[in-house]
Amino acid sequence: MTKRISNDALRQRRLGATLTLLASTILAIPTIASAQSANNRNTNATASSGSQRATASSTLNETFPTRSTGTGTSTGSGTGQLAGTTDPYYASGSSLTDGGATDPLDQSGNGLSSTATGTTSLATTPLRAGANMLQGTPLNQADGLIADDLSELTEPQQNAAEEAIEGGGDATARRGDGLGVKLGTFTLRPSVNQSVNSETTRSGSNTSRRNYLATTLNGTLTSDWARHALTITGAGTYQKNISGTGQAEPNARLDADLRLDLSNQTVAHVLAGYAFEREDASDPNAIAGTVEQARVDRFSLGGTIERDFGILRGTAALTGTRTIYGSARFADGSSLSLSDRDRNAVEGRIRVGYELSPALIPFIEATLGRAVYDDGVDRLGYARSSWSYGARSGVQLDLGEKLRGELGLGYAVVDYEDARLKSIDAFTVDGTLLWSPQRGTDVDLGLRTTVQDATAAGQSGWVDYQLSAGLSHLIRNDLTGRLTASSTLRDYPNTDNALNWALGTGLIWNINRYFDATANLGYEFTDNPGGTDSKQLRAGVGLTLRR
Fold first, then answer.
1. Fewest Cβ atoms nearer than 10 Å: which of 198, 384, 472, 500?
2. Which residues contact 436 (CB under 8 A, 6 or more apart)?
């Protein structure tokens, strides 16, 4: 009897110990999950020689990848059935970038702001036009979207199909296509696109037509380092008229992003860029009656530092931009120098986010900027140097490859030195959304607000509100379709507002892993109550060689 009681007591003690261990394990699960989530956010493990090396990198929760030209880690391999990230019809920043952006969407950003390089925060949408060169937004998209240009609008798939266990097939070949040239610890992925295009432009009662050749060069140079990363992207387009009349629209861009992994919680970026184009003839500041608008060169340098404080995320950024204008040329051979518009701009930004969950991060942000013109007064006698102030709040959303983006609402003010120039104040809306409802289908939306300086007598500037959208669908394994649209409202303080909208569509046929055929069609309309309305129709076909 005594022995039976002892066994019962022993079983009770064992049962009690088991229950205690089970309860403690259950109670520890949230702590373990939280620690694992924090570890996943701040560590990027890469396999090397059968082992794993931990490399610190910014995470999607802290800095979403923006609409860029193949920067970041995505450039190391192909993009499913779509062309590689260095193809001329891979989106540039912005965000459609940020926005984007930004890319009108790549604002990054457009968002994703766009821009931006592949690791720059979506929140880097600048208040003043020109500063967005750091986000990789092409210069010719600063005031509007060229919706028919596939070289700027086609994104890689966000939700690519997984590779089959057995391997093989065209999808596998494209993901492991071996494209790119190894240069030591770097990989260069170049491409060249040659296209034949036709363009018809109507401005008021005047109509001009031209047929032209366009040659586009793209390249991405990415590092393969165990720690830190350097990404350099470049693109340029040269146009030559073969018949008709009309202004050529050359452009070039070069961006560099040096990511410094200071610690598991701290990441810094050193950013530099250069962009060139001719001022758009539909821009309110363009010179009327010219045969060639002035060239615009922009040089940019800046940096960001991002820190994870647990549930808090902090970002500080400083951007500097140098803008230089050339001369507009007239039919009689004379020219008009626009050097009085040359200026330097500096903008600082501080942002704090609160992590409600890894997928939802509300934030607040403040910006301060200063623009200084080389000439104290312009050719009309106005001092256009200014201070800019801005604040906004919003939320970042990251649900993985299916859905991610950002939306911010705020208020901005630009004060000019000349008392005769009225201050510009506006409510701002900036955001990006990337949605992949199914593999092979990508949808991107972008909102962007920027303040532009005017050149007319007595006019300080205006506010641009831009909405852009794009749909990319993999029709077949070797055929991709793209639809784009944008609408830009120019809010003038003293005159009627102007509206610009554009529609575009295009196809990309992957002939093989080295050659792609492209076709595109676009239409753009500008309703200008205070001036001349304009319409433009453009179509083209081309061939891309990739390496």
1. 198
2. 157, 158, 159, 401, 402, 403, 442, 443
At residue 118, does pLDDT exceed 50? no
- Which residues of 13-149 form beta strands (DSSP E)? 44-48, 51-55
Token code pair at residue 417: 């030195």
Please tell me the least confidently modeled range out of 42-46, 119-123, 282-286, 388-392. Answer: 119-123
- Closest listed residue to residue 416, CA positions, set 372, 468, 366, 466: 372
Is 154 a residue whose pLDDT tops 50?
Answer: no
**Residue reference for tokens 């900036």:** 430
Query: What is the Cα–Cα distance from 323 to 385, expressed in whole angstroms?
Result: 13
Taking 60 as the threshold, does the pLDDT of residue 16 lie above it?
no
Distance of CA 22 to the CA centre of its chain: 49
The answer for residues whose C-beta is within 8 angstroms of residue 319's C-beta and 6 or more apart is 126, 131, 134, 271, 300, 301, 302, 346, 347, 348, 349
Measure Cα distances from 104 to 233, 437, 438 in Å: 18, 22, 24
Sequence-distant (6+) residues with CB within 8 A of 138 are 92, 93, 94, 103, 152, 235, 251, 253, 275, 277
Contact 268, 100 (CB under 8 A): no
